[in-house]
């Protein structure tokens, strides 16, 4: 019988604990494509997140109060409503007819001046604003010299006479004369007769010959 040596038995008696330990498992190398995709996703998501946060803050922010309107821009010109003193001399039949036609078609306002009542002759007189701009129909036509200036406004020829506190404009090319007195408080008096000129063209026939300086 063969002898079994102690060394043999010792070798057979080894347990798993006596075996050399295995080295740590190697981790797989990161995928470069996956890392790039993650970076791109982060770069895209960050601005979107910031935009959403900004919109949310803007939605809950209190509205700014509206600015108060400028009272001078919308408020009408303050003026008196008392009748304006005006003379009403008697007119011949034809001028009276023409003046009634004119007065019936005059506008309710001249620029920002509202019409006011007059003390006499509402069929031939009108007044606007405070101080009062007045319109008188049927008076005397001024004598215009050959070299004297006249002014055409909307096809109506006007003679301008400057007074201390007003400018008086009188038509010189119409069958019946119409005079407009513009107080000195209103600058550039010719601009104040533009709307009145339109009514004169529609209601007061022209007369010939007109002064040489009249155009249109």
Automatic annotation (TrEMBL):
Pfam families linked to this entry: DUF3515
Region (Disordered): 1-34, 65-89
Polar residues composition-biased segments: 1-10
InterPro entries: DUF3515 (IPR021903)
Record keywords, A-Z: Membrane, Transmembrane, Transmembrane helix
UniProt feature, compositional bias: Low complexity: 65-76
Transmembrane segments: 37-61
Superkingdom of source: Bacteria
Name assigned to this protein: DUF3515 family protein
Organism: Micromonospora endolithica
